[in-house]
Amino acid sequence: MSLAPQVLPWAAALALALPLLAGAACFVVGGRTAAALALGVAVLSSAAGLVLAAGVADGGVQRLALGGWAPPLGIAWRIDGVAALAVALTGFIFAAVLVHAEKSLDLLRGEGLSEAFRPLALVLLGGLNALYMANDVFNLYVTLELVTLAAVGMVALAGDSAAALRYLLVGVIGALAYMLGCGLLYAAFGTLDLDLLAGRVQPGGTAGAALALMIVGVMAKGALFPLHGWLPPAHGSAVAPASALLSGVVAKGGFYVLLRLWLDVFPATGAAPAAAQILGTLGALAVLWGSLQAIRQTRLKVLLAYSTVAQLGYLMVSLPLIATAAGHASGLAGALHLMASHACAKAAMFLAAGSLIATRGHDCLADLKGAAHDHPMTAFTLGLAGMTLMGLPPSGGFIAKWLLLDASLRSGQWWWAAVILGGSLLAGVYVFLAVSWSMSRPPGEPSDSQPPPLPRRLEFAALALALVAMALGLVSAERIP
Amino acid sequence: MFIILGAVLFALGLYGAFARRNVVLKLVAVNIASSGVFLVVVSAAPTLPDGGTDPLPQALVLTGIVISVAVTAFGLALARRLATDEGRATLDDKEDSS
Amino acid sequence: MTLLPWSQAAPLLMLFSSFLAGIIIFTLDEQRHVLRATLNLGAAAAKLVLVGVVLAGVAAGQTFEVAWPLVGGLDLILRIDPLSMLFITLSAFLWFVTTVYAIGYLEGSPDRSRFFGFFSLCVTATVGIALAGNLLTFFFFYELLTLSTYPLVVHRGTAESLRAGRIYLMYALPASTALLAGIVGLAVLTGHTEFSPRGSGLAGVPVEDHGFELRLIFVLLIGGLAAKAALLPLHGWLPQAMVAPAPVSALLHAVAVVKAGAFGIMRVVYDVYGLELSYDLGLSQGLAVLAAATILYGSVRALAQDDLKRRLAWSTVSQVSYIILGVALAGPTATLGGLVHLVHQGIMKITLFFCAGNIAETHHVHKIAEMNGMGRRMPWTMAAFTIAALGMIGLPPTAGFISKWFLGVGAVEVGAWWVLVVLMVSSLLNAAYFLPLVYRAWFLPPDDATAGRADAKLTLLVPALVTAALTILLGLFANTPFTPLAWVRLIAEADHI
Question: Cβ contact (<8 Å) for B75 and A169?
Answer without folding.
Answer: yes
